[in-house]
Design brief:
The structure is a single chain. By secondary structure, the protein is mainly alpha-helical. The chain has a single domain, classed as Four Helix Bundle (Hemerythrin (Met), subunit A). Helices cover 65% and strands 4% of the residues. Helix 3 packs across helix 4. The chain is globular, with a radius of gyration of 20 Å.
Length: 191
């Protein structure tokens, strides 16, 4: 066995694979879930996914061909639409980490559902190849996932986390305001 492929058995890789598989399972079972439950669970699993990805040991590709992909355009779109349906009017947010933003006089809108589908696509492709159990392709899949984390889906994850934080805690504030309105009514506060 090549020395480079030993990285796939590292404890941090095994932990990342475990969290990544749970993330995929969560999204695959999300259809029909209440928004509050989806957001609450997302706010717990996304930071863990980020943490485990950031702890991966350095990994370089060793094969000649890129590993297979699993997520099709149709699968991607189904996940995006399911999440958009769950989040409804809370799906969009203003993006602030886009290089073109400094040249634009219009805000850049992103969608949590699209970010989730992008992250899912990369993670699911990684998990799919990892489950095949072939050391070289597992290594290369890990290297690609790690590279994509650094340059692509890691930033999407933290942006999504920021947007979900707003959904979760703005939603709570709105519910508290509605409860206070129904308790106090139109009577003036006498202090």
């Amino acid at each position: 066995m090549k020395k480079e492929s030993q990285v796939i058995f590292d404890r941090n890789v095994v932990e990342f694979v475990t969290v990544a598989a749970e993330f995929c399972k969560f999204l695959e079972q999300a259809e029909g879930v209440k928004r509050s439950i989806f957001v609450d669970t997302s706010l717990k699993i996304l930071p863990l996914l980020y943490l485990k990805a950031s702890m991966l040991p350095e990994c370089k590709t060793i094969g000649d061909q890129g590993p297979e992909t699993f997520v099709t355009e149709e699968t991607y779109e189904v996940f995006r639409m399911n999440i958009a349906g769950i989040l409804a009017e809370k799906d969009d947010y203003l993006e602030v980490f886009v290089s073109d933003m400094k040249y634009s006089d219009q805000p850049v809108t992103r969608y949590i559902s699209e970010d989730f589908a992008d992250i899912y696509q990369d993670i699911k492709d990684f998990i799919f190849v990892f489950q095949l159990g072939l050391n070289e392709t597992m290594n290369d899949s890990l290297a690609i996932c790690q590279e994509n984390f650094r340059h692509y889906w890691g930033q999407k994850l933290v942006n999504t986390l920021r947007a979900l934080h707003d959904v979760r805690y703005t939603q709570d504030a709105e519910e508290e305001d509605n409860e206070e309105d129904s308790i106090i009514g139109d009577e003036p506060y006498l202090g």
